[in-house]
Amino acid sequence: MTRDADFERFAADAATGTILALRRMGGATFTESDRRAMVDGLDVIRVACVQPVGTSAASRVPGAVSSAEYERAKMMVVMGAMQLWASGKLDLVEVDPS
């Protein structure tokens, strides 16, 4: 089975599959909103990576990222990256020479 076939099979029963399919129907675009969502998600993940407590302690430590916030941030980044890839703009991102 191909990756595309696997995606279609799994996406049929997943809310995120529906979201991706609807975005594809609207055109393969990477919008300013997508960019902002990725930046916001990365900002949350950045804090979670250095906070001195686990995500379960977020209710006791002001400013700490909770597990729910962390999971949402990961999804924001992944969905934004998927839009970047689906739009074809990922191929246009400049890369540093090896």
Features:
98 residues, mainly alpha, 4 helices
Question: How is this structure best described in words?
Answer:
- The termini are far apart.
- The chain is about 60% helix and about 0% strand.
- The chain is an all-alpha fold.
Specify the structural class: mainly alpha
The H-and-E topology, N to C, reads as HHHH
Helix content: 55-70%
Q: State the low-pLDDT regions, or none.
A: none
How much beta, percentage-wise? under 5%
C-alpha-based Rg, rounded: 16 Å
Number of helices: 4
Q: Please, what is the average pLDDT?
A: 86
Shape: globular
Q: Determine the N-to-C terminus distance.
A: 33 Å
State the total count of DSSP E strands: 0
> Main beta sheet: strand number and arrangement?
none
Task: Characterize this entry briefly.
With 98 residues, the chain is mainly α.
Indicate the topology:
Elements (H helix, E strand, L loop, with lengths): L2 H9 L3 H11 L6 H19 L16 H20 L12
Helix pairs in contact: 1-2, 3-4
